[in-house]
Design brief:
Elements (H helix, E strand, L loop, with lengths): L2 H14 L5 H11 L5 H8 L3 H22 L1 H11 L5 H13 L2
Length: 102
């Protein structure tokens, strides 16, 4: 699995993880944070591997839907990029644009 995918979903989980069910959040954390395989998680929780796969896919979809609607991760990334500038006027203008969609 690509590192970028792990980073992306971990960032989404930081922002929106509280919207997942406790069970899905636990499974998601075991997979993305503790880097356990689906089989290791299934064995630990005494469920099937397909149950784990479905839970992860459900969680990914939920996190992606929340990001699509709220765009908090995208805005964080944009703001981080803008803050690399030394031009205070530019920074203020761009942050206002990003936050208020102007």
């Amino acid at each position: 699995m690509m590192v970028e995918k792990f980073v992306y979903y971990n960032n989404l989980f930081d922002l929106y993880g509280s919207f997942l069910t406790d069970k899905n959040a636990d499974i998601f954390a075991l997979y993305y944070r503790e880097n356990l395989t689906m089989q290791e998680i299934a064995d630990r929780l005494k469920v099937t591997k397909s149950f784990i796969g479905n839970s992860i896919k459900t969680s990914e979809s939920k996190l992606e839907a929340l990001e699509k609607d709220l765009q908090l991760y995208a805005k964080q990334e944009q703001i981080a990029h803008v803050l690399e500038s030394n031009d205070i006027k530019y920074i203020k203008t761009e942050i206002k644009r990003i936050i208020f969609d102007k």
